[in-house]
Structures are given as structure tokens and as C-alpha cells.
Design goal:
With 199 residues, the protein is mainly α. The chain is built from ten helices and no strands.
Length: 199
């Protein structure tokens, strides 16, 4: 599956998953928290696929990484949909139990996450040919580079602070670190290639 059909299918599946988890627990706090965790994990996987697409095709060229690179835009938009579903479920928690919501978060986290959501919205909005052309290639690359790494930082902070208290976040922490390693290794390899060409 490719392109916008991939986005549509993933969006429907993610929305259905969140609704099922909440409905199966009678729309109580436990169901909402399960949906928050599930959408967080789905968002991280989709972000990892989109953010490492260019690096993976350089490091491990294969049919799978060619598919990943070809669908990078659509994986990125799917990540945006997933993370906004995640936001919707978080707001549901806030409306159900405000005291618990503030035990789980704070103003600093909200500011950090809110900025990440602004980047996600801007990057998703410029994932269409017309808006990308309007922004221009240089600004587009800058937005997606800075935005991508800022989103990575927000994941690293959100996951890292929970790892000592909840083993659920250990696999997510490994994935967060792997994302950075893949990007940095590809960057170093590219720089070495350019240095060799220069000499």
C-alpha cells in the first residue's frame, strides 16, 4: 500500500483502535489511559519510519527501505494524524479527571509538547505539493529538519522521564535512541563521502 491510501487506511485504523480501547473499558479512566499509551507508541513508530527514511535507504538499501523512502511524506502525515488522535485522547483524560491529568503533566511539559504540535501541524501542512512549492525548497528543508529534531527531542524527554518508573516505556526508549543513531550515522557517512570527493 502506498501514498494517500496508506494515510487513509492508517488514520481509520488508529482512530478505530483508540475508540475501541476506550469503549471496551466503558469510557473510563483506564480505557482512556490505554488509548493514550497505544497512540503514543503508534505515533513514535510512524515518526521513526518517516524521520529515518532518507538515512535508511543510504545505510541499508532494500525493497523495504525503498518503500519507506517513497512513502516518507505519507508516513509523516500519518504520524501527524496519529499524534493528533493522541492529543484528543489526552484532552479526554483532562475532562474526565483533571486532578489526575495534572499529576501526570505540568506546565513545562505542556509548553514543550505544544511547540512540538505546532511543528507537526506546520510540517503536515507543507507535505502537499502546492504548499511545499509556496514555502520554497530551502525553507521547506529547514522547517522539516528543525521540526523533525524538535519532535525527536520531545519524544526523548517524554519517554526518558517515564523509563525509570514504567517498563512499558523501555522499548520506546530504545527506538528513540535508534532513531538518532541512524540519522547521525548516515550524516557522518555522507560527510566522509563528501570529504573524499573534495580530495
Amino acid at each position: 500500500m502506498n501514498g494517500w491510501r496508506l494515510v487513509g487506511t492508517l488514520s481509520l485504523l488508529l482512530g478505530a483502535m483508540a475508540l475501541y480501547l476506550m469503549a471496551s473499558h466503558g469510557w473510563d479512566i483506564e480505557g482512556v489511559r490505554l488509548a493514550i499509551r497505544a497512540t503514543a507508541r503508534a505515533s513514535l513508530v510512524l515518526f521513526a519510519l518517516a524521520f529515518t527514511a532518507g538515512a535508511m535507504i543510504e545505510l541499508l538499501p532494500s525493497g523495504a527501505t525503498r518503500w519507506q523512502r517513497r512513502n516518507r511524506r505519507y508516513l509523516g502525515v500519518s504520524f501527524a494524524v496519529s499524534h493528533f488522535i493522541h492529543l484528543g485522547v489526552i484532552l479526554a483524560l483532562a475532562s474526565l479527571d483533571r486532578e489526575l491529568f495534572w499529576k501526570l503533566t505540568n506546565v513545562t511539559t505542556i509548553v514543550l509538547a505544544g511547540t512540538a504540535y505546532l511543528f507537526i501541524a506546520a510540517m503536515a501542512a507543507t507535505s502537499f505539493d502546492r504548499t511545499a512549492a509556496w514555502l520554497g525548497p530551502r525553507k521547506w528543508r529547514l522547517l522539516h529538519l528543525i521540526g523533525g529534531w524538535y519532535i525527536w527531542i520531545s519524544f526523548a524527554v517524554a519517554v526518558g522521564k517515564r523509563v525509570p518508573f514504567d517498563s512499558f516505556y523501555w522499548p520506546m526508549a530504545v527506538l528513540v535512541l535508534a532513531i538518532a543513531v541512524v540519522r547521525l550515522v548516515a550524516m557522518l557517512r555522507r560527510n566522509r563521502s563528501l570529504e573524499r570527493l573534495a580530495h
